[in-house]
Design goal:
mainly beta; 12 strands; 133 residues; seven-stranded antiparallel sheet; 0% helix
Length: 133
């Protein structure tokens, strides 16, 4: 069973392209780098308004109380943090750049440089049958 997180480019030359990343293990955190620098997880090489390492997107896999029907349940938490970029990082229609670490919900649009990105709703699916659970 695969567990992915995806981010979709919502503007620019890669508009519509989706990047997939593996969810962190239970109790762990995964941090994705976003920027112009080669090697960033979300590479914005085409965006002159993006800093080399512009922002970080964090994914937390948080254990929650188990029940009879679900063993090792978890929930995912997401945050976005600007990395002292020149042009700021913006969430949805807020005209003020993010300050510090802000929580994100799946489906949220955010802007890095001139590029709009969307944190997609995470899916768990069975890779053998390609069907969503």
């Amino acid at each position: 069973m695969a567990r992915d997180i995806s981010i979709t480019y919502m503007s620019g030359p890669l508009d519509g392209k989706t990047l997939s990343f593996q969810q962190p293990d239970l109790g762990d955190e995964r941090i994705l780098s976003i920027g112009r620098r080669e090697g960033c997880d979300v590479h914005l090489h085409f965006d002159s308004q993006a800093s080399r390492v512009h922002a970080h997107l964090g994914i937390l896999s948080i254990p929650v109380t188990a029940s009879e029907s679900v063993e090792n349940p978890y929930m995912l938490g997401f945050w976005l943090e600007d990395q002292r970029s020149r042009n700021g990082t913006f969430v949805e229609k807020d005209k003020n750049p993010v300050k510090g670490r802000v929580s994100l919900r799946p489906g949220t649009l955010f802007r890095v440089g001139r590029t709009w990105l969307r944190l997609d709703v995470p899916l768990t699916y069975d890779a053998d049958s390609d069907s969503q659970l």
